[in-house]
Amino acid sequence: MYAGSIPTLASNLRRLNEDADCRAVILTGADGNFSAGADMQGWGETTVQECRSRLKRGGAALMRELIAGAKPVIAAVEGYAYGAGLALAAAADHVVASSAAKFCCAFTKVGFIPDLALMYSLPRRVGSARAKQLIALADVIDGSRAESLGLVDETTAPGSALGRAREVALRYCETPPLAFELMKSAFARDLDALIQAEIDLQPYAWLSADHEEGKRAFAEKRKRASRDVENAIMPPCIIGPLL
Asked: What is the DSSP letter of 223?
């Protein structure tokens, strides 16, 4: 996902949410992948103010349209859904994925906290404890495992996600549009608080040494070096036994 694609996607969703003739939206990828995540080379902000501005005009606007917008959004996932791709899928109202699709909360691999409202949508799908584990450990899971966790609503054979998503979209088209819009709005009442937290906190991760190392490791296709682990003198602390 290139830096300029998020505002473009937000604009397209805004247009569809305002179009009375549109009754449902299918969100999908191209070339066999949903989205392999953000293009790290396209993010050149160097100050907190620049980072906040990028987040406000890009991710914040997009996720308001996706999560609190008027129309049902069905995600059709094939191939990779990493980082931003996973966040977009998790925010959809209905997720159809290939059983062979690959999901990863890749944000921490480059020293970020999740944005694109993932800390809002993921706990609502898989629960808070599992969401923290998926984010912190950045494990890769396939579509079948994602379905068992609740991240995906249904799986299909590889290559069939879009066809099934079209069938699901037709069902959502039968719902009364005003009732559906009001329902989405009610569920999203606390969305803005989480988006504001992302805007406030992500710039500090963005400008951190952890992110710089993560970005270099990504470009050099190597594992990110962890100063804390390499320089540790003691193993992880153990508390117990508890009485």
From this structure: P
pLDDT tens-digit map of 39-91 = 555 567 778 888 888 888 878 999 999 999 999 999 999 999 999 999 999 99
Which token pair is 146? 């994602």
CATH number at residue 143: 3.90.226.10
Residue 234 resides in a domain: no
Pull the structure tokens for residue 44.
């050149």
Mean pLDDT, all residues of the chain: 89
Question: Which structural domain range is residue 111 located in?
Answer: 5-161+174-187
Q: Decide: 129 and 207 in contact? Cβ < 8 Å.
A: no
For the record, the structure tokens of 119 come out as: 């800390």
Per-residue pLDDT band for 238 (boundaries 50, 70, 90) equals: confident
DSSP three-state, residue 80? strand
65 lies in some domain: yes
Tell me whether residue 202 is in a domain: no
CA geometry: angle at 52 spanning 81 and 49, to 5°?
Answer: 145
Residue 236 lies in a domain: no
